[in-house]
Fold this sequence. Notes:
- The complex is a heterodimer of chains A (about 600) and B (about 70).
- Chain A is an alpha/beta fold and about 600 residues long.
- Chain A folds into four domains: about 50 residues, no CATH class; about 200 residues, 3-Layer(aba) Sandwich (Rossmann fold); about 140 residues, Rossmann fold; about 190 residues, 3-Layer(aba) Sandwich (Aminopeptidase).
- Chain A contains 28 helices and 19 strands.
- The longest helix of chain A is centred in the N-terminal third of the chain and has 24 residues.
- The radius of gyration of chain A is 27 Å and the shape is globular.
- With about 70 residues, chain B is an all-alpha fold.
- Chain B has one domain: Non-ribosomal Peptide Synthetase Peptidyl Carrier Protein, Chain A (Orthogonal Bundle), CATH 1.10.1200.
- Chain B is globular, with a radius of gyration of 11 Å.
- Chains A and B meet through helix 3 and helix 14 of A and helix 1 and helix 2 of B.
Amino acid sequence: MENRDSFLQKIEKSKSINFAAKAVREFLIENNSYSDYFFIDNNLPVFDSKKIKIAFLSSYTPNLIETPLRVNLFKNKIKGDINFSGFSNIEQELFDDESTLNEFDPEFIIVSLSLEDLFPDFIYRFSHLNSKEIEKEFDGIIKRLVKIIELNSSKNRKTIICDFGYPTVLDNVLYHSNKSSGQIEQINELNKRIKLLRQKYADFSSFHFNYLQNKIGIESSFDSKLWYTSKIPFSKKFLIEFSNELSLHIANLLSSKKKCLVLDLDGTLWGGILGEDGINNILIGHDYPGNIYRDMQLLLKRFIYQGILLCACSKNNLEEVKQVFEQHPDMILGFNDFAASRINWKNKHENIRSIAEELNIGLNSFVFIDDSYFEINAINNLLPEVETIHLSGDELQKLETVKNIHWFYSIDLTEEDKIKTNLYRNDKKREESKTEFNSIEDYYRFLEMKLEIKSSDEYSINRISQLTQKTNQFNLTTRRYSISEIKKNHESTESLIFYLRLKDRFGDNGIIGTVIINITEESWKIDTLLLSCRILGRTVETALISHVINEARKQGAKSVIGEYIKSARNQQTESFYENHGFKQKGNCWYFDTENSIDNPEWIEILTKEN
Amino acid sequence: MEERLKKVIQDVFSVDEVDINVRMDNLSNWDSLKQINYMIALEEEFGISISPEEMQLLKEEPKSVLTLIETK
């Protein structure tokens, strides 16, 4: 039992927001009364990390969410500064330069409106309305939202719009549940139109208010007393869940998502201990409690399709473990589903570190799940950048924990994400065949690499933005760009974006790099040059810079200018320009396009445009 | 009971000491929103329901809240 004193001690000891956030998370597992949120809020430590300003625009009183939201944001390592603008004067708040909202100047604006306020006839006179009238009102609502999004975008603010919930009382439930255009269907239609805005407005995202309200229950989400006495339409339970989900949404927009989930085996993927109970007695199957572990495996496996790498890390004998995955008829996960595995008797922190090296991704992209508190605690202390999930309690509780894993939420998924485990598995094959060659050059030739270098197009914009957001190691300038910024560059005549796709005999690596160039009459200046860590060590960077110089010459530029901005993670690119014959002048590196750089003979360049 | 009440007040109003004989709306950070938070926290802590009419009582000395809880 985590009591208040030990929580306060942990908070006092914590040197970083990472550790303090974990302490808050752990405390809340066992202490989540309403006043506990205030207790935590009163004791949140002050680190000098940046505060994120968040404003609410709503047609009701949302202020009660402040404390739970601040606590939940902190749980996600965000220091939130939350502001509420008076309700029902949304446009005035937005357009008046001297309004509280504009004085506050938030980075995020959460828009939460209710149909009761926007379109009361829809709730109280529905049967009286015809479809044309409804459509006209809905058009008006969407136009209003678009205006809000556009205005926020112009001020570099991100807009989060809550979709619409269902009314607590339906107009005439029997009649309308037999019509395809009843209240429920109409609200779904309106919500669909909100979601469609995402295709056009990259600074906008939609929040799943409707789903959340249904998950909790429409009636349990509403509190008549709070509504009629204070114009607060939410129950305590809804407020807490709403703040939690909103903080995850914001965290997702702010930071790169986790890429890898490391799984323990005994007590996590099946019940019992393989080494002691034997393959025939571990709990996994169609009866209780084995059916719960089976469902947990189904839930975990779905992350693979979202581009998350699953890894296994267990203190066990490899042969026995392989036997379970290959022979046990009720297993959902196969040994091949793991991008990497460490089945041995070493400490888990060493194993996770070595998985990170093998996959070439940073430890802060890792999430670790185990039923042993000893292992969880060890990772929390030894690898604080790794997020941990403790599977405590009985099977039913474990299932709840697995259902609620939120670390892999992401607003956009690219095609690459959907096949990522395959990509890494092909990498493994490549690694394995490396050892059969006398020289690395022989190996490069064997790979039959084909590098496609193309100008950006509509299909690649998302992925290019994602690469700028996520690439840390081979990234010369580490400039992060949103989808809308990439789009702007893509459309501008003063800049040029190339993206790279690498294929080899093991498969297609997808889009693995990008170059953003600012064009002037005399020169090409490389604003961004990055490669995904997956394909490093294959001389792709040389092929790329050689191509950029050839293109610059073709288009009349006299020189190519490069720049290196040091970050905590990009040391390996420090001498990239120097190694390729660029000359340093001040902060920049220059290359005269009368010269050229040889393309590595083992990489074939394909430049044909679509 | 009194200790649990004091704990709720300390949390919600972020104060170190609670005097149950002093009116709540004398607190410097008392406002209508705090009052609602106070009510929700009390309802949860003591498993009671406070009616809209009884909400006015929350402004008074915490002692009267104790009496209210005892009658529930």
